[in-house]
Amino acid sequence: MIKVCAVADVAKGTVQQFEVEGTEIALVHADDDNFYAAYDECSHAAVALSEGEVDGCTLECWLHGSRFDLRTGQPSGLPATEPVPVYPVEIRDGDVYIDLNPSNGVTK
Question: Would you call the peptide bond into 75 cis, given omega within 30 degrees of 0 as the criterion?
């Protein structure tokens, strides 16, 4: 697990971009108070998901409106049809850690 930031660095209901060992990550502090990490690129168009909107446990791509489930990486609507990699997140002593091995088996 790799330390990314402090829990306090990402406000609830928001997403921030981090580079972790050369991988761009969209880190979300969801409304359910959990943290989720996804590869920071839409599977439909090469745009940053971290510039999108958080809605519950989904992240919406700002360009065409595809939504991705942050737990599975699966898109919930067109135009995206392919999932994005999602990464295990762990909270320890007020810090956010992620594992760069995708929990859904999808590689970038």
Answer: no
pLDDT classification of 1: cutoffs 50, 70, 90: very high
Distance CA 72, CA 104 (A): 6
Residue pLDDT, tens place only, 41-82: 999 998 999 999 999 999 999 999 999 999 999 999 889 999
Q: How far apart are CA 77 and CA 56, in angstroms?
A: 15
Whether 108 has a pLDDT exceeding 90, the answer reads no
Residue 57 burial by CB count (10 A; 0-12/13-18/19+): exposed, middle or buried?
A: middle
**9: phi then psi, degrees, rounded to nearest 5:** -75, -20
Amino acid identity, residue 69?
D
